Amino acid sequence: MRYAPLDGRVDASTVVVGGGFAGLNTALGLAARGVRDIVLLEGERIGFGASGRNGGFVFAGYSLGERALLEKVGAEKARALYGRTVAAVDLIRERIDKLGIECDAVDAGVIWANWFRDPGVLRQRQQLLAEQFGTDWQWLPADAMREFVRSPRYHDGLFERNALHIDPLAYARGLARVAAATGVSIHEGSPASWLERRGEGWTVHTARGAVTARHVVLACGGYLAGLDRKVDRSVLPIATYVMVTEPLGDRLAECLRTRAAVYDTRFAFDYYRPLADTRLLWGGRISIRNRSARAVQRLLRHDMGRVFPSLADARVDYAWSGLMSYARHEMPQVGARAKGLWYAQAFGGHGLAPTCAAGEALADAIAVDEDGCEAFADFGLVSTYRPFGYLAAQASYWNAEMADWFKRRVEG
Description:
Elements: E1 8-17, H1 21-32, E2 38-41, H2 50-53, E3 57-58, H3 66-73, H4 75-98, E4 110-113, H5 120-133, E5 138-140, H6 142-148, E6 157-160, E7 164-165, H7 168-181, E8 185-187, E9 194-198, E10 201-205, E11 209-218, H8 229-232, E12 236-245, H9 250-255, E13 261-264, E14 271-274, E15 280-287, H10 293-307, E16 316-326, E17 333-338, E18 341-345, H11 352-367, H12 388-411
Parallel strand pairs: 1-2, 1-11, 2-8, 4-13, 11-18
Antiparallel strand pairs: 3-7, 4-6, 5-6, 9-10, 10-11, 12-15, 12-16, 13-14, 14-15, 17-18
Helix pairs in contact: 1-7, 1-11, 3-4, 4-11
């Protein structure tokens, strides 16, 4: 379904800038709370950015690990923040089921596969999640791992049952369909050109129109709108890469005997999931460069061949890159920049559940209580010092990649 560009001047209660998960979840959350006259502006098409280009993993947590979250905000706040993403996973599952969103959902969990021989990092995380967050991840000894994921690269693993994987672009378009059915006015091909304060409200201008509203939500992720300098400068747009193989038939079953999605324990990890037509979706790498489809295919085929040598010659039918938004503190930024001016960004490659949680928080803040985003207050708008921040991010990635390589070499 296509949505017409904005044409002319309109008034609204809330205008959401960005047709990805953060914007769509906010619009849906507002509609569910009885807010009317909501306008959503998307510069390209719904799901054009990271929301439609990611691996489709739906699980709890943030880019910032659970231990670091505990250390930064303490046990009570950490549990509350983590709990929001657990609730978001449940809400996503409920929306897919009750709203009839066709997105090839596979409710079969996620496996965290140990790239290294040392089981310590898995055991420590398993214990931390159980004791501090009330979350049970199942231990997979090496023999069980090799039965499910038939690769010599992995050792033991952890299985997160309360997780699923989906076609993210189909899910984004499904959310838009539901939002439009509830009365949200969606406009594609309508990039916001500038933002101005007007009385008690705001006006967002596009090439062919303008929306005046009491509330504006900036939810642009890595595809910055240029509407507020401080909001934009608080994130780094970072690229990641994804490809999809040809249908593999029985070759896929020789590699994967599970419907769960998989990612590994390295900093620069691979992530992949089997598709219904026996294709394998494969993603990985982090870079400050948005590469061509041909370059993505070359890099990721090499990575896939290291894990599954039998697929080294598999044809790649699709490959793409996309920009995620990262904050220096590795947590989402959700809150108010000024009265009536809200933002939701910096989901750092862990977007499906946290964007849902952010949308619910913003909907509460706008429709019910201005303190609805207070849970995220410890992680505000912190400058990334672009362009120098790009160099720091790339150097950090290379250092972590080198540490992973060295640990593997030491283990033999």
